[in-house]
Amino acid sequence: MTALNQPTDEELTRRAQTGEAAALGLLLARHQAPMRAVALSLLGYGPDAEDAVQDAALTALRRIGDVRDPAAVGAWLRAIVRNSSRMRLRAGRETPGLDGLDFLQTHGIGPSCDAYPPYFSHPERVVDQHAMRDWIWDALEQLPEPLRLVLLLRHFSGITSYQEIAHACEIPVGTVRSRLNQARAKLAHVLLTTAAHVHDDASRLAEDSRQEAEATLEGARRGHQPREILELWPAETELVGVLRPPGERCHPIPAMRRNREKGVTQHLRHVVASRTVTIWEMDVTNPVGIPDPCPPTLAWLMLRRNRRVQTLRVVFPQPQR
């Protein structure tokens, strides 16, 4: 029996559907035990069952607006766990570990689930309407940097395959899988424990990063970066990865200058920004007949401290079909 001073499932669901993160956090905490029971019945005791519950919690964050009968939200949550568990039983398939975060991708929508109807609207607009977006991004900021990096690549950028992430981070594919699993578990925990907190404006961070990217590209085209951009690329900034000459320490600015001299131009397509990890995805235009042309797409992968870039790694993902 629900205590008189406790909100009902229906009330919490309706509040969550208006964007109240604390209501969704309380709702998930209330139903965590029956959700876990469903996972255990299908997967048995072990990490797979816990992962299925965490996946379901993140999916619920994405899909809470789809609940048509708020009073029956418990059955809806258990259905999501059942679907997540069944997906884990399917062999030979690479499935995202954070289906609940696919709604923040600007280039696609996650796979539909038979526990709820497909989501055909523009999901990033739904999240931008309320505070849940900021709740998610604040939780991401609390992950250790190696976990945050693979998660941002997998679910927020165009570098999505395990092989591409492994290449971008210079780690084995098995490590990519392991870090994604750890990221999912930690993120689910952080979301549940921070639902009632005040969160930073994630859209402002992304917009600031977009403006910085445009200013940096314009400076590269002119051959002269403005002072405020140069301050973000101090002398200790290091170019790493395939573009760095073997055995040499290289600053990114001369590499930008070489591209300009070759006539190669880059055009910003997508920005992913946290306080310490930034990803700028670019389309590339090469001059006609240039020897050794640049691939048509690339991404700047930057690690930062106090806004200043520590390292820049340029990666070349496979063109998306």
Explain what this protein looks like in three dimensions:
The protein has 321 residues and is an alpha+beta fold. The protein has 2 domains: 192 residues, no CATH class; 113 residues, Nuclear Transport Factor 2, Chain: A (Roll). It is 50% helix and 12% strand. It has 13 helices and 5 strands. A 5-stranded mixed beta sheet has the order 1-5-4-3-2, with helices on both faces. It is elongated, with a radius of gyration of 22 Å. It starts with 8 loop residues before the first helix and ends in a 6-residue tail after the last strand. 36% of the residues are buried. About 12% of the residues have low confidence.
Question: Which structural traits does this protein have?
Answer:
5 strands; 5-stranded mixed beta sheet; 321 residues; 2 domains; single chain; Nuclear Transport Factor 2, Chain: A; alpha+beta; elongated
